[in-house]
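Handout, section B. The chain below has 118 residues.
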Amino acid sequence: QVQLVESGGGLVQAGGSAKLACAASGIPFSSYDMAWFRQAPVKEREFVATINWRGDSSHYANSVKGRFTISRDNAKNTVYLQMNSLEPEDTAVYFCNAYSDDDGADEWGQGTRITVSA
């Protein structure tokens, strides 16, 4: 059974930091690319960041570039999102996504909420 479990959400003041984690099970984690998406209230889900299976290539949405860092630990089957200089506009539910172009896998976690207060 595939499980992606996000953690690290909560209430943060503007300018502060938070680190999200996504623990994966039931998938060949070290073979999958991983990504973070977010969905703010009354908005569509949007891409935040992605990292390849080796962990040596990452890409970011322009809105978070320079503030957020995605990383992974294949030994722990976990992907992280370090978020710095948080802004109220970063308030959203953050979702972990595991995907593979090789086998068409596309798995999602349940999300963790980050609220950034002004």
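Note. The mean pLDDT is 97. Compare this with the example in section A.
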